[in-house]
Amino acid sequence: MNRQRKNTPHVNPVRRCDLDLLHFPSYILYIHSHTPYFHNFLFFNGETSSLHPLLVCPVLFLLHKVFSPLALVAAEGLVNGRRDNGSVKLFVFGDSYADTGNWEKFAASWKEPYGFTFPGKPAGRFSDGRVLTDYIASFLGIQSPVPYTWRKTVEKSGLQSGMNFAFGGTGIFDTFINAPNTSTQIDFFQQLLEEKAYSKQDLNSSIALVSLAGNDYTTYIQRNGKLQGLPAFTTSLISQLSASLKRIHGFGVRKIAVTTLQPLGCLPISTAFSSYENCSESWNAASRFHNQKLQQEIQRMNKESRENIYETLDLYTAFMSKLSPAGNMKPSSFLMPCCVGVASNYSCGNIDKNGEKKYVVCEKPELSIFWDMVHPAQNGWDQVYSSLKSSLHRLY
Fold it and tell me: Which InterPro entries match (predicted)?
């Protein structure tokens, strides 16, 4: 909040606070409009108040410092006109861009320095902090849905936000990672429905997030060694994804959001060959081709169903808009990962047999777009979310 104002003319403190309120987080606005005590004392847009004018801004500033935004994500949802907390459920399918803890504790996502920014320790996310799932849940005004593998360790009330079936390293097809692919994740969902974990009413007010495809392309290249034949592979990939989306909808899920493919050529694993100076155009072209085919299929499916059940979240455009250097900034400022191995045979989170760290972490993770060689940092996801946010209303 400590914004510096230079050469600003004198403004009545009440009016100044009116202006500043435009910049307060939405959870403060929620407290004002939904908490009886503050409703009687705070005001907006020049409305009268029984609280002394000089105290209005300090009180709001104190609230801003005391209350954590993520502790009040439900409030944010209400302020922005979304459903009340608990009335919407989010079911997540996908890979490490959406996984919030399904892997067992031996996975990299459960080792330091993952979770460095949030929650301050490893928590199962493939990032230093929050991932896409967390931001979508926040937008919906709910807590991030519980990972599927945690379902038996939480109270039933802990399932009210939905469930996350995503596993890092997985794909639409099988990958080299021994973990549930999309079809198996949907099998888990079907089993829960058969067990009456969620009702038809729950599904009628639910949204599915599907974040997949990057690992499928990595697996394809590892198996084939070149990009030749990729268009045919993309066609089969989109066909299988389409069948999976229809299957999810067939259970009664009202709305399904599927991510476009991120710019694979701009991931650090691709830009490392140019010292993080340039994206790989051939890989970005592959991403664009995938996204074009995906958009065409989504349009066809919506036309077939005669309603807009399926929506795309344009990760490609969102990432690219944040990876363009401004002014004199070097591309490496955006393309370089924060956490890297000390040598080519090490990666973020690796330690040797003596417990010595074999990785380094940048000084300011909060400024990094990428956390490791393939995953965005929390700051990266935050910036991507800021680009996606204006389109998320289509989920309702």
Answer: GDSL, SGNH_hydro_sf
